[in-house]
Amino acid sequence: MYQQPPHPQQMPPQPGFGRVLLDASFNPMNWFLYFIKPVVVVNGQGRQVEWGQLPIDLPAGQHNIEVHFPYFGKPRGVARATIPVQPGQQQPVHYRAPANMLLSGAMGPTRPATPGMASSLAILGVVTLVLLISFLV
User: Fold this and answer.
1) Distance of CA 10 to the CA centre of its chain
2) What is the pLDDT of residues 29-43, one digit of tens each?
3) Domain for residue 43, yes or no?
4) Is the CB of residue 5 less than 8 Å from the CB of residue 13?
5) DSSP for 67-116, written as a single string
6) Confidence of residue 1 (pLDDT cuts 50, 70, 90)
7) Per-residue pLDDT for 117 more than 90?
């Protein structure tokens, strides 16, 4: 089981533990995600959390982390990574929800781009153009 410290910058991890600082985010164009909480699964044990930064204290070693959000009873935007944790160190991990429910999310040591954003903007542009042309005709 993993532990969540109350104040990540004030309290160091326990001896033999390191800290994963998970930053879970989404593009504001996916406004409905404001109403859905992400799920973080660490080594097979999951729980719902808030969007934003989540400090997770873990014993030193390799840990499997998955982040997704529930949508109509199914996990969507799934992203997985194996994260090495060193004692006394903080490891940043960034999760980004996709722009489209059918795509996977992205996770890495730096903030990834929103998966599927270009295709979603292209579809939005085509729909807007079709509506504009039909309005003018």
Assistant:
1) 24
2) 888 899 999 999 999
3) yes
4) yes
5) EEEEETTEEEEEEEEEEEE-TT-EEEEEEE--SSTTS--EEESS-PPPTT
6) very low
7) no
Instruction: Evaluate whether residue 60 is within a structural domain.
Output: yes
Domain annotation covers residue 4: no
Q: Is the pLDDT of residue 127 over 90?
A: no
Owning domain of residue 35: 17-136
Question: How far apart are the C-alpha atoms of 54 and 97, rounded to whole Å?
Answer: 16
Q: Per the structure, how many domains does the chain have?
A: 1
* DSSP state string for 108-120: ESS-PPPTTHHHH
**Residue 127: CATH number of its domain:** 2.60.40.1120
Q: Is 47 part of a structural domain of the chain? A: yes
CA distances from 49 to 16, 24, 53, 94, 100 (A): 25, 9, 10, 14, 21
